[in-house]
Amino acid sequence: MSTDGWKNFGKYGADLDPGNVHGKYALGRALEDALERMIIEGGIKSPVTTRRGLKARMNYLTTTSGGAQAMAEAGITATRPTIRAWTKGTQRPRPENAEAIDTAYWNLRAANILANPGAFKQHLNRGGQGTKVEIYPINQDVVLPTRRRENLRVRRFQVRYVWDAAVDALAAGDVTELEHIWDEIIAELDSDWGAYTYVSHIGLGA
After folding, report:
1. What's the predicted TM-score (pTM) here?
2. Tens digit of pLDDT for each residue in 41-82?
3. CA dihedral 57, 58, 60, 65 (to 10 degrees)
4. What is the rounded CA–CA span in Å between residue 184 and residue 188?
5. From CA 93, how far away is CA 45, in angstroms rounded?
6. How far is CA 178 from the centre of its chain?
7. Please, are residues 67 and 92 in contact by the beta-carbon 8 Å criterion?
8. How many angstroms separate the Cα of 145 from the Cα of each of 14, 34, 50, 131, 166?
9. 162 Cα distance to chain centroid
């Protein structure tokens, strides 16, 4: 498959695999995955079913702005005395309430991180070191045999300087800007860049 074949993507069957997508969409998904990992990895490790995990979640929900709303949206209708008892660890919630507390905690943590994207930008920038990007080429099994490119392989390299703009584009849902950023990323591949305009997957080492 020649580099300029992407101008007519799907002409030789590449679009028959729905996993083969433009890099801008794969980049957006990779950013969402990295954000989810950041939210989970930086969160409370102890399960809500443990006394420690319950108290930690309740402390966050009762001391962080938006906590009461998060609990209400998760379906928690407990009285203030019950909320205080959960927070102190003197009373254990029923299983359905424990699940709702866990949901409220993660939803609030995610909302707070999304509202302050600076931390996510720092996470990706790593003090100027950037983030490793893994680019998986399209699945060529669906491409006409005579149009397949035999030397496509997974590419791995460090990417710097684009992450502030990438996070802003993700938050704004700006697919056009994500496309510009993807073009900038694959430009690092020199003459081979066009073969990775469309990909099957992008992984971020963050």
Report:
1. 0.80
2. 999 999 999 999 999 999 999 999 999 999 999 999 999 999
3. 140
4. 7
5. 19
6. 14
7. no
8. 11, 35, 56, 35, 36
9. 16
